[in-house]
Amino acid sequence: MKRTNIQTFSLVKFAAFAVALCAAVAISGCTMSKVEVDQSQVQSDFEGYAEGLAGDFVQSPYVDNDDYALTAFDVSGSRVVDGGDNVFDATATFENGAFRTTMDVVATYTKDGDSYTPSFEVSNESTKAISGIVYDPQGVLNNVESVDFDEDDQTCTVSAAYEPEWFESVQGDMKYVYRFDGAKWAPDSSANDSVKVDYGPLVATYDQFSADTDAGGCLSKIDITNVDEKTSEVTANVTWMRGKHSNHAATAAMRSVTDDSDVTLDATVKGTLYSAPTEEGKHRVTATLVGTASNGKQMVVGVYAGGDAYNQDWTLCYNASVQADDAAYTCGSTISKKI
Asked: On the chain, which terminus has fewer CB atoms closer than 10 Å, C or N?
């Protein structure tokens, strides 16, 4: 009798469980349909679809742009939806030597007779750098000593030997930081503070000039008296002269050649020095200096040192604009320090 009661109770429990299970299935809208497409077929079909995606992946002039390859295809779930479509959720990963791109994939297989036709939707695409830069398209890096790539921070720190020009003084190690923002590598100027370059050596008197014209005059002196170490503000006393003059030995005879139109104006001018390297990476510094001349009118002098064929030690290139009493004049040439 005891055995019969136990059997009866078990049958009752099973019946109740079956009813509850059926009710749960009905409420959730689930079906008992089986996924018929194999996951290996999904990956194979996606590989063909992916050939049209790779052309849109990140490229950069800082790296070797090798072809991307599908390195992972992970299916996280599959289901049969109303109408019988087989749907797969997956994550796809593509890599070349420089970048890794991941994306979410929804693969839908629509039943067509006895077969299924696939379609794909991708979303949430993101790219990370997986190696450091190898090229310098801006041409600012010379004598690279090391390249340190931080994959977590997505930065590349380039250590380079910095050989100062005659107008520069360098303290610390020269390091350049580049950052990958998910779409491109680019210099991170806010982080390039590992070295201090100042232009204190520019302080000198430059009065070795050559001119044989009174059309625009020339600068017969640029006396740089101060360069602020922190702000790079430069102060200079300049002299503009109109007439036929020279103090270079090759044209010493011209020193005595003057005319009645000689005009001389002095000015104290100020400006800020900026680094302006050439595309080839040669060091160059430039400034626009502005002040009031001795006749009460404005004088503007643009100067630069280094960077091109005129890059001789202790030589400045300049362009000056000055308002004399009779007219406005411009001139440009080089002027040197006597060594």
From this structure: N
* CA–CA distances in Å: residue 287 to residues 17, 43, 234, 270, 274: 87, 61, 8, 9, 6
The H-or-E segment that residue 301 falls in is strand 298-305
How many CA atoms lie less than 13 Å away from 117 in the CB half-sphere?
A: 4
Ranges assigned E (strand) in 130-198: 144-150, 155-160, 169-172, 174-180, 185-187, 195-198
Name the nearest CA neighbour of 336 among 216, 237, 202: 202
Distance (Å, whole) CA 134 – CA 62: 6
Residue 170, beta-bridge partner list: 197
Which of 46, 39, 100, 43 is CA-nearest to residue 68?
100
Measure the CA–CA gap between 244 and 129, rounded to whole angstroms. Answer: 62
Closest CA to 238 of 163, 290, 194: 290
Instruction: Give yes or no for a contact between 146 and 133, defined as CB atoms under 8 angstroms apart.
Output: no
Query: Tokens 């002098």 belong to which residue?
Result: 301
Sign of CA pseudo-dihedral 224, 225, 229, 232: negative
Residue 121 backbone phi and psi in degrees, to 5: -130, 135
Q: Which of 181, 125, 183 is nearest to 156 (CA)?
A: 181
pLDDT of residue 192: 60
Q: Specify the DSSP class assigned to residue 57.
A: S
From the list 144, 133, 201, 136, the residue with the least C-alpha distance to 171 is 201
Quick: pLDDT tens for 214-253: 678 899 999 999 999 999 999 999 999 987 665 544 444 4
pTM confidence score: 0.55
The separation between the first and the last C-alpha atoms of the chain, rounded to the nearest angstrom, is 124
Q: What is the mean pLDDT of residues 35-63?
A: 93
* Distance separating alpha carbons of residues 16 and 198, to the nearest angstrom: 87
User: Distance between CA atoms of 303 and 167, rounded to whole angstroms?
Assistant: 13
The structure tokens listed for 88 are 């797969």
**What is the percentage of the chain residues whose pLDDT exceeds 90?**
60
